Amino acid sequence: MLEARRVLDQVWRPDPANPLITPELLRVFAHSGSYVVGIHRDGRMVGFCLGFLAAAGLHSHIAGVDDSVRGRNIGFAVKLHQRAWALARGITTVTWTFDPLVSRNAYFNLAKLGAAPSEYLADFYGAMQDEVNAGTESDRLLVRWELAGEHAVGSAAGTPRSVTVDSAGAHAVVGLDAKPDGRPAVGRRDGDTVLVRIPAEIETLRRTDPSLARAWRYALREVLGGLMAEGHTVTGFTRDGWYVIDKRQERQA
Protein backbone atom coordinates (compact mmCIF):
# COMPACT_ATOMS: atom_id res chain seq x y z
CA MET A 1 0.00 0.00 0.00
CA LEU A 2 2.94 2.33 0.62
CA GLU A 3 4.14 1.62 -2.92
CA ALA A 4 0.75 2.70 -4.28
CA ARG A 5 1.03 5.99 -2.43
CA ARG A 6 4.55 6.46 -3.81
CA VAL A 7 3.30 6.05 -7.39
CA LEU A 8 0.44 8.50 -6.90
CA ASP A 9 2.71 11.03 -5.16
CA GLN A 10 5.18 10.81 -8.04
CA VAL A 11 2.43 11.57 -10.57
CA TRP A 12 0.57 14.39 -8.74
CA ARG A 13 3.15 15.69 -6.26
CA PRO A 14 0.59 16.58 -3.56
CA ASP A 15 1.13 18.58 -0.40
CA PRO A 16 2.75 16.04 1.99
CA ALA A 17 0.31 17.13 4.69
CA ASN A 18 -2.64 16.37 2.39
CA PRO A 19 -2.01 13.00 0.65
CA LEU A 20 -4.24 11.88 -2.19
CA ILE A 21 -5.03 8.68 -0.31
CA THR A 22 -3.64 6.85 2.70
CA PRO A 23 -2.38 3.25 2.90
CA GLU A 24 -4.93 2.60 5.65
CA LEU A 25 -7.83 3.62 3.42
CA LEU A 26 -6.46 1.56 0.53
CA ARG A 27 -6.39 -1.47 2.81
CA VAL A 28 -10.06 -0.93 3.67
CA PHE A 29 -11.01 -0.61 -0.01
CA ALA A 30 -9.11 -3.79 -0.87
CA HIS A 31 -10.61 -5.76 2.01
CA SER A 32 -14.15 -4.66 1.15
CA GLY A 33 -13.94 -5.86 -2.45
CA SER A 34 -13.14 -2.67 -4.34
CA TYR A 35 -10.86 -2.54 -7.38
CA VAL A 36 -7.36 -2.00 -5.94
CA VAL A 37 -4.67 -2.97 -8.46
CA GLY A 38 -0.94 -2.37 -8.71
CA ILE A 39 1.19 -2.93 -11.80
CA HIS A 40 4.71 -4.22 -11.18
CA ARG A 41 7.81 -4.22 -13.37
CA ASP A 42 11.14 -5.72 -12.27
CA GLY A 43 9.85 -6.08 -8.73
CA ARG A 44 8.73 -2.46 -8.43
CA MET A 45 5.23 -0.96 -8.61
CA VAL A 46 4.99 1.31 -11.67
CA GLY A 47 1.23 1.84 -11.85
CA PHE A 48 -1.82 1.85 -9.63
CA CYS A 49 -5.60 2.13 -9.95
CA LEU A 50 -8.41 2.39 -7.40
CA GLY A 51 -12.11 1.94 -8.12
CA PHE A 52 -15.11 1.41 -5.87
CA LEU A 53 -18.69 0.26 -6.30
CA ALA A 54 -21.18 3.02 -7.09
CA ALA A 55 -24.78 3.42 -8.21
CA ALA A 56 -23.88 3.13 -11.89
CA GLY A 57 -21.53 0.17 -11.44
CA LEU A 58 -17.83 0.73 -10.75
CA HIS A 59 -16.39 4.22 -10.29
CA SER A 60 -12.69 4.41 -11.14
CA HIS A 61 -11.48 7.11 -8.76
CA ILE A 62 -7.74 7.46 -9.32
CA ALA A 63 -4.99 5.93 -11.44
CA GLY A 64 -1.36 6.75 -12.05
CA VAL A 65 1.61 5.46 -14.02
CA ASP A 66 5.25 6.07 -13.12
CA ASP A 67 7.12 8.40 -15.48
CA SER A 68 9.64 5.62 -16.19
CA VAL A 69 7.05 3.59 -18.12
CA ARG A 70 4.99 6.32 -19.78
CA GLY A 71 4.28 5.67 -23.44
CA ARG A 72 4.33 1.88 -23.01
CA ASN A 73 0.55 1.36 -22.91
CA ILE A 74 0.53 0.58 -19.18
CA GLY A 75 -2.56 2.76 -18.67
CA PHE A 76 -4.39 0.98 -21.48
CA ALA A 77 -3.50 -2.42 -20.02
CA VAL A 78 -4.86 -1.30 -16.64
CA LYS A 79 -8.20 -0.27 -18.17
CA LEU A 80 -8.50 -3.57 -20.03
CA HIS A 81 -7.82 -5.40 -16.76
CA GLN A 82 -10.42 -3.22 -15.03
CA ARG A 83 -12.93 -4.05 -17.76
CA ALA A 84 -12.32 -7.80 -17.40
CA TRP A 85 -12.49 -7.55 -13.59
CA ALA A 86 -15.82 -5.73 -13.74
CA LEU A 87 -17.41 -8.02 -16.32
CA ALA A 88 -16.40 -11.07 -14.28
CA ARG A 89 -18.46 -9.61 -11.43
CA GLY A 90 -21.49 -8.75 -13.54
CA ILE A 91 -20.63 -5.03 -13.70
CA THR A 92 -21.24 -3.54 -17.14
CA THR A 93 -20.57 0.18 -16.56
CA VAL A 94 -17.46 1.98 -15.31
CA THR A 95 -17.41 5.72 -14.68
CA TRP A 96 -14.59 8.16 -13.96
CA THR A 97 -13.71 11.82 -14.30
CA PHE A 98 -10.89 13.63 -16.09
CA ASP A 99 -9.85 17.20 -16.81
CA PRO A 100 -11.42 18.05 -20.20
CA LEU A 101 -8.57 20.47 -21.00
CA VAL A 102 -5.89 17.75 -21.00
CA SER A 103 -5.76 16.67 -24.63
CA ARG A 104 -3.90 13.37 -24.21
CA ASN A 105 -6.39 12.22 -21.56
CA ALA A 106 -9.36 13.24 -23.69
CA TYR A 107 -8.00 11.20 -26.60
CA PHE A 108 -7.21 8.22 -24.38
CA ASN A 109 -10.61 8.15 -22.70
CA LEU A 110 -12.88 8.97 -25.64
CA ALA A 111 -10.98 7.59 -28.64
CA LYS A 112 -8.75 4.80 -27.38
CA LEU A 113 -11.16 3.44 -24.75
CA GLY A 114 -14.46 4.52 -26.31
CA ALA A 115 -15.91 6.03 -23.12
CA ALA A 116 -18.69 8.61 -23.51
CA PRO A 117 -18.96 11.92 -21.61
CA SER A 118 -22.17 12.14 -19.60
CA GLU A 119 -21.78 15.33 -17.55
CA TYR A 120 -19.63 18.46 -17.36
CA LEU A 121 -18.78 19.15 -13.71
CA ALA A 122 -17.64 22.72 -13.03
CA ASP A 123 -14.98 23.03 -10.28
CA PHE A 124 -15.91 19.52 -9.15
CA TYR A 125 -13.27 19.06 -6.44
CA GLY A 126 -12.89 22.70 -5.47
CA ALA A 127 -9.36 24.00 -4.81
CA MET A 128 -6.78 21.22 -5.13
CA GLN A 129 -3.32 21.31 -3.57
CA ASP A 130 -1.24 19.00 -5.76
CA GLU A 131 1.25 20.46 -8.25
CA VAL A 132 -0.71 19.28 -11.31
CA ASN A 133 -4.00 20.97 -10.36
CA ALA A 134 -3.05 23.80 -7.99
CA GLY A 135 -4.06 27.27 -9.12
CA THR A 136 -6.81 26.17 -11.51
CA GLU A 137 -10.47 25.36 -10.99
CA SER A 138 -11.08 21.63 -11.06
CA ASP A 139 -13.59 21.21 -13.90
CA ARG A 140 -14.08 17.57 -14.88
CA LEU A 141 -15.86 15.47 -17.47
CA LEU A 142 -17.70 12.48 -16.07
CA VAL A 143 -17.53 9.61 -18.55
CA ARG A 144 -19.37 6.30 -18.79
CA TRP A 145 -17.68 3.22 -20.21
CA GLU A 146 -20.30 0.72 -21.30
CA LEU A 147 -18.18 -2.43 -21.14
CA ALA A 148 -20.31 -4.58 -23.44
CA GLY A 149 -20.98 -1.74 -25.88
CA GLU A 150 -19.65 -1.45 -29.41
CA HIS A 151 -16.92 1.08 -28.62
CA ALA A 152 -15.55 -0.72 -25.55
CA VAL A 153 -15.49 -4.04 -27.39
CA GLY A 154 -13.69 -2.39 -30.30
CA SER A 155 -11.24 -0.80 -27.89
CA ALA A 156 -10.43 -4.15 -26.30
CA ALA A 157 -9.71 -5.48 -29.79
CA GLY A 158 -7.33 -2.59 -30.47
CA THR A 159 -9.66 -0.51 -32.65
CA PRO A 160 -10.00 3.07 -31.35
CA ARG A 161 -13.11 5.19 -31.83
CA SER A 162 -11.70 7.36 -34.59
CA VAL A 163 -13.21 10.72 -35.57
CA THR A 164 -11.73 13.60 -37.56
CA VAL A 165 -12.72 17.18 -38.20
CA ASP A 166 -13.43 16.22 -41.82
CA SER A 167 -15.70 13.36 -40.78
CA ALA A 168 -17.77 15.81 -38.73
CA GLY A 169 -19.24 17.07 -42.00
CA ALA A 170 -19.17 20.18 -44.14
CA HIS A 171 -21.92 21.85 -42.11
CA ALA A 172 -20.14 21.62 -38.75
CA VAL A 173 -19.63 24.93 -36.94
CA VAL A 174 -16.73 25.92 -34.71
CA GLY A 175 -17.86 26.61 -31.16
CA LEU A 176 -14.40 27.22 -29.71
CA ASP A 177 -11.06 27.80 -31.44
CA ALA A 178 -7.71 29.46 -30.79
CA LYS A 179 -6.90 32.98 -31.96
CA PRO A 180 -3.48 33.63 -33.57
CA ASP A 181 -2.20 34.78 -30.16
CA GLY A 182 -3.33 31.51 -28.54
CA ARG A 183 -6.30 32.97 -26.70
CA PRO A 184 -9.66 31.16 -26.89
CA ALA A 185 -12.22 32.43 -29.39
CA VAL A 186 -15.83 31.48 -28.66
CA GLY A 187 -17.72 30.93 -31.90
CA ARG A 188 -21.03 29.48 -33.04
CA ARG A 189 -23.17 26.77 -31.49
CA ASP A 190 -26.10 26.77 -33.91
CA GLY A 191 -25.07 23.88 -36.17
CA ASP A 192 -26.06 20.23 -35.92
CA THR A 193 -22.39 19.44 -35.26
CA VAL A 194 -20.18 21.70 -33.14
CA LEU A 195 -16.38 21.49 -32.97
CA VAL A 196 -14.65 22.56 -29.76
CA ARG A 197 -10.87 22.96 -29.67
CA ILE A 198 -8.60 22.69 -26.65
CA PRO A 199 -4.88 23.58 -26.37
CA ALA A 200 -2.32 20.87 -27.12
CA GLU A 201 -0.41 21.32 -23.84
CA ILE A 202 -2.57 22.91 -21.15
CA GLU A 203 -0.26 21.67 -18.36
CA THR A 204 2.67 23.58 -19.85
CA LEU A 205 0.42 26.61 -20.31
CA ARG A 206 -0.52 26.55 -16.63
CA ARG A 207 3.14 26.95 -15.72
CA THR A 208 4.08 29.52 -18.35
CA ASP A 209 0.89 31.61 -18.64
CA PRO A 210 -1.62 30.88 -15.85
CA SER A 211 -4.00 33.65 -16.92
CA LEU A 212 -4.26 32.22 -20.43
CA ALA A 213 -4.82 28.74 -19.00
CA ARG A 214 -7.67 30.12 -16.88
CA ALA A 215 -9.16 31.82 -19.95
CA TRP A 216 -9.29 28.43 -21.66
CA ARG A 217 -10.90 26.88 -18.58
CA TYR A 218 -13.72 29.43 -18.58
CA ALA A 219 -14.20 29.28 -22.36
CA LEU A 220 -14.44 25.49 -22.38
CA ARG A 221 -16.85 25.57 -19.45
CA GLU A 222 -19.04 28.04 -21.33
CA VAL A 223 -19.05 26.18 -24.64
CA LEU A 224 -18.63 22.46 -23.92
CA GLY A 225 -20.28 22.70 -20.52
CA GLY A 226 -23.13 24.71 -21.99
CA LEU A 227 -23.74 22.29 -24.84
CA MET A 228 -23.73 19.29 -22.51
CA ALA A 229 -26.07 21.05 -20.07
CA GLU A 230 -28.50 21.41 -22.99
CA GLY A 231 -28.38 17.62 -23.42
CA HIS A 232 -26.14 17.40 -26.49
CA THR A 233 -23.81 14.46 -27.12
CA VAL A 234 -20.03 14.44 -27.33
CA THR A 235 -19.44 11.83 -30.02
CA GLY A 236 -15.65 11.83 -30.03
CA PHE A 237 -12.32 13.58 -29.74
CA THR A 238 -9.88 14.00 -32.62
CA ARG A 239 -6.17 13.32 -32.39
CA ASP A 240 -5.48 17.00 -33.17
CA GLY A 241 -7.49 18.33 -30.24
CA TRP A 242 -11.18 18.84 -31.11
CA TYR A 243 -14.25 17.64 -29.24
CA VAL A 244 -17.06 16.72 -31.65
CA ILE A 245 -20.59 17.41 -30.40
CA ASP A 246 -23.61 16.08 -32.28
CA LYS A 247 -26.74 18.04 -31.40
CA ARG A 248 -28.93 15.52 -33.21
CA GLN A 249 -28.22 12.76 -30.70
CA GLU A 250 -29.59 12.56 -27.19
CA ARG A 251 -27.00 11.86 -24.53
CA GLN A 252 -27.51 8.71 -22.47
CA ALA A 253 -28.64 9.39 -18.90
From TrEMBL:
Coiled coil: none annotated. Transmembrane segments: none annotated. The keyword Transferase applies. GO terms for molecular function: transferase activity. It comes from the Bacteria. InterPro entries: Acyl_CoA_acyltransferase, GNAT_N_AcTrfase_prd. PANTHER family: GCN5-RELATED N-ACETYLTRANSFERASE (PTHR41700), N-ACETYLTRANSFERASE DOMAIN-CONTAINING PROTEIN (PTHR41700:SF1). This is GNAT family N-acetyltransferase. It comes from Streptomyces inhibens. The lineage of its organism: Bacteria, Bacillati, Actinomycetota, Actinomycetes, Kitasatosporales.
